């Protein structure tokens, strides 16, 4: 899998009316299926599973989870069987959406959990039981965020990125990607996370993974919460895609770009700030809208 990745990762600089430099690091282009940050999050998890002799990987996600799709693909590529624990019993009897259909086509065994059972997904006792039930499975948490994932997301920034930019922006779900970027950033840089979810709890999650303080997180552009959208967001996304020919998706990257361009318009950054935006991908379930 790792030899199929298109390195070096392309950069694209946008022409803006304001006096800041905005460059996008296109992680969405590294691979058609395991695109973006999920590749970095899975890398050391799958290497560890391989070294420890597991034959299966098991993980958790919602029906639209990019992590589920990426894991199904990467597992197949690496020669693992994959098991997906999906939130929502009712989904079992409905036609699959593209994410679940893709995962199943890639050989992922899907199990649909009640919301009650799904809520136990981080509990040690539940995970022990699951491990007994699936002794061959290497268990990866929801969204793929664990210490091994953060080891991987520390490789998103290159040495040049540490020199060439003042601000690094990234969309945030569980915070594992942002934590790796913070950990690998230089002290002179500021890392700005755009949360796709409402709430402050994410700050605490991220603090568990890093001692550094050169970062901040905003949920001002989450449009009401995870996977929620507004007409403004959808219109922004379409207009941005047409103008720059860069695809976004509405759960993460469109919210981040809308937020970032709003901050730039309101002169949040000093003139000549060099901003690097991480395009985290997540486009596998998306139809081209332009
Ligand atoms: C999963 C995902 C994120 C969030 O990553 P976390 O490490 O969970 O914060 C951001 N953008 C895209 C496109 C994703 O698929």
UniProtKB/TrEMBL annotation:
Domain of life: Bacteria
InterPro entries tied to this protein: ACCD_DCysDesulf (IPR027278), TrpB-like_PALP (IPR001926), TrpB-like_PALP_sf (IPR036052)
Keyword Transcription found: no
All residue ranges annotated as the Tryptophan synthase beta chain-like PALP domain in the record: 21-281
Pfam families to which the protein is assigned, alphabetical: PALP
Catalytic site positions: 65
Record-level Gene Ontology MF annotations: D-cysteine desulfhydrase activity
Essential cofactor(s): pyridoxal 5'-phosphate
Alphabetical keyword list: Pyridoxal phosphate
Positions of modified residues (N6-(pyridoxal phosphate)lysine): 38
Family per record: Belongs to the ACC deaminase/D-cysteine desulfhydrase family.
Name assigned to this protein: Tryptophan synthase beta chain-like PALP domain-containing protein
